[in-house]
Amino acid sequence: MVYCLFAIVGIISLYTARHYWFTLNRLFGFQRHPYIDTDTADWPQVTVLVAAHNEEKVVSHILAALMSVNYPREKMLVVPVNDRSTDRTREIIDQFCLEHPGRIRPFHRTAGKGGKAAALKDAMELVDTEVILIFDADYIPGAGLIKQLVAPFFDPEVGGVMGRVVPLNVGTNLLTRLLDLERSGGYQVDQQARMNLQLVPQHGGTVAGVRLSALREIGGWNDNSLTEDTDLTYRLLLYGWKTVYQNRSECYEEVPETWQVRIKQIMRWAKGHNQALATYGFRLLFGKHRATLRERIDGFFLLGVYIMAPLTLLGWLLALAVFYEGIAPLHGVIALLSITAYSAVGNFAAFFEIAAAVRLDYTRQRVCLLPFLILGFGVSIFSVSRAFISQLMAPLTGAQFHWDKTERFRTTP
Amino acid sequence: MTATLACAALFALTGALFLVPLIPAIVELRLKRDAKALNVIQQYAGDIRHFSQGFRSYTADLLEPLRECVSSGGTATGTLPHGDQCLLLGSPDAAELLQPGSTDNTCDFVVLAGANITLPGGITFTKELFASRQITAGERCTYRAILCDSDVRLGRASHVSRWAHAAGKFQAGENCDLFGRISSEREIELLPGCVFQRLNAPRIAFGAVNETQEREPSIAISSEALNKGIAATRQLVDNDLEIAPGAVIAASIVTRGNLTIGAGARILGSAKSHKQMTLGQGALVAGSLISVSTIHIGANCEVAGPVIAEHGLEIESGTHCGTTQKPTTVSAPTIQIEEGAVVYGTIWARQEGQVLPCK
Fold first, then answer.
1. Lowest-pLDDT range, A122-126, A304-308, B88-92, B309-313?
2. For position B229, what pLDDT does the model report?
3. Which is the most buried residue in A57, B112, B138, B358, by most CB within 10 A?
């Protein structure tokens, strides 16, 4: 029991060190933005896929935004992937097609397997360009975003591109404000540090791009995956393709406004990540493939982020058990020093990361909300652990995963 | 005090202490002082002409008075919406630029010139300069920003602090410092010794490019190659790679070590190296050149696609990047480019670019 606890503390300490490494790199290290200066080029043909399932509240906004980007008109085709919508999504898309002839080619899917990956897989019959960009329907791209996301594909090693997601509905309630802070930390620090250090920036499946030939080489979209973006990141990595992150390619999104929606979302992410860990974890670490040593290690850490929640819970239980068993796992002084050191430094790693992100974003007052992140942390740790347990129990209970679309809240553009 | 009261007081005090760090959070949550979405730029402020277009809009109302000055051959003064004093010049005479009695050769007006204007050397313009006709300037002038609807010719050792845009040709003499954004609708020509950051024009010539260097590029086109899958067929190499002189490679090359492309070799896709990349004389690349480290491009090479070096770039004389029909971007933190090289499109040195004399 004690050794198990030591192991968990050791793993948590590694993640803590990783948080600090990323944050310090972001604050003081060399920042890589190699493709962002590419403002003039012979731009390639690009297909923009817009994943839409019952998106009547938001789909018109993204289509309008895409019609006004500064990418050469004759080189960009927008394909709204209307996945079995039962609301007015189809009608809205068709209206846009009439208003912008030749620039939008809709893909209306009325049957088939559920989920974004399955819909994108079917929509590939309309795609013949080497560069594909993907947006969820609640995103609002700016005028220069398409060029910024296409530019990295001039690099022959780049298979995937990821831009930065910025919440639009920040001020709605406490949850949206906490999610805004989490997104800042995740993108402004985590993703960019991975880019700086040539580790494994994660493909997010939206505000993102993928190279058609790379996608074909890795076997196309995996419609058995719960999170097609994580799955794509690792398959690209194993085949020697880089995913790059562009911190300055920012795009607005809508974050969940209710805890129920947030819990569903994070549980789906956790299950998808864990599925990818089970599928690719061992192969990534020990298999024969093109990833570098640092990519193998960082990739494995990234795959394990959602395992940390149940591990932490287990650690708490073990610590209680050890205490009530009367076991003294460490010499008193060492224990005291360890606990003091961890309390002073370790507990604050994630907070330090988010505070650094807020500073890098030149915002000031929102950092005051940091103490409330404990609330978000608490909800996440139990939701992710619940997802993990239900995933473990699934073979016994026969439970089938069904893809939950994230509910939209937008009422005005 | 009873034990119960003491316990209650202790709990209350503990609770209050626990709440102290939450006070700023609660205040921020209630007041929403910083609850707006981050300012994601929805319009493309990165466009090199962003500032010049803004300045044109800012001064649009003065064009009619400027025409009147040109008709009468006189000058006029006025105040712009933000309070800046402006000077409208209707004749080529630049004597009005300096205020009477001025000893420091400083012009504090926003200057709008309606005729061809010849500027004497040594003047410092603390505000923007607009000319609807040609600007021919003397040596050692300092400009905040220049907008010209015709050609601009800066004398040697001039200095531009923020931006300059010319509808015609933009020429800078030797040893000019051109910070910020310099753009032209036609052509930019910089002589040796010039320092630059970001340049954009259909054709950017470094030094006086002679006729033998001014040739029509022969290379294939990057986007066509990309869409036909030529660039997509890639060869991954884990170590250093040397491509023999004169070799023809019908694929893209990615090396995790150094990459050396021999003289006269032809890469029909793109090339990337994780370490140093060197192109021999006369090498030809149909796609892009990318290096996580540095790139050295030898003399008389041709590169069709973007050239991106994360740490530094050197380009020798006679090399062409992009074509008239297919402009491209050349970017690195530091760029050293010899006279005789030509870039079609954009060249962007985040820290500093230098034009060197031909060896």
1. B88-92
2. 46
3. B112
Using an 8 Å CB-CB cutoff, list chain A residues near B227.
Answer: 44-45, 129-130
Residue B129 and residue B247 in one domain: no
Cβ contact B290–A171 (<8 Å): no
- B328 in any annotated domain: yes
In-domain check, residue B216 = no
Q: Give the per-residue pLDDT at B50.
A: 84
In a domain, B43, yes or no: no
Q: ipTM of this predicted complex?
A: 0.89
What integer pLDDT is reported at residue A217 of this predicted model? 94
Same domain, B167 and B241: no
How close, in Å, is residue B334 to chain A by CA atoms?
13
Query: B225 pLDDT band (50/70/90 cuts)?
Result: low
| Cβ proximity of A130 and A211 under 8 Å | yes
Mutation site, A368, A373, A410, A412, interface B, largest B CB count within 10 A: A368
- Does B228 share its domain with B179? no
Question: pLDDT band at B220, cuts 50/70/90?
Answer: very low
Q: Tell whether A402 lies on the interface with B, counting CB pairs under 8 A.
A: no
Answer whether A42 sits within 8 Å of B327, measured CB to CB: yes
Judgement on whether residues B77 and B169 belong to the same structural domain of the protein: yes
Residues B58 and B176 in one domain: yes
Judge whether A166 is closer than 8 Å to chain B, CB to CB: yes
Q: What is the pLDDT of residues A35-70, one digit of tens each?
A: 999 999 999 999 999 999 998 989 999 999 999 999
pLDDT one-digit tens code per residue, B139-195: 999 999 999 999 999 999 999 999 999 999 999 999 999 999 999 999 999 999 999
Residue B134 lies in a domain: yes
Asked if the Cβ–Cβ distance from A156 to B270 is below 8 Å, we say: yes
| Structural domain range at position B58 | 53-185
Q: Which residues, including other chains, have CB under 8 Å from residue A26's CB and lie 6 or more apart? A: A188, A189, A192, A193, A196, A356, A357, A360
Listed residues B156, B185, B214: the one ending a domain: B185
When pLDDT is averaged across residues B220-229 and rounded to a whole number, the result is 49
**Domain locations along chain A:** 32-176+190-262
* A32-176+190-262 CATH: 3.90.550.10
Contacts of B47 in chain A (CB under 8 A): 39, 70, 144
Clarify whether residues B322 and B247 are in a common domain.
yes
Residues of B in contact with A213 (CB under 8 A): 229, 232-233
Q: Answer whether A100 touches B (CB < 8 Å).
A: no
**How many domains in chain B?**
2
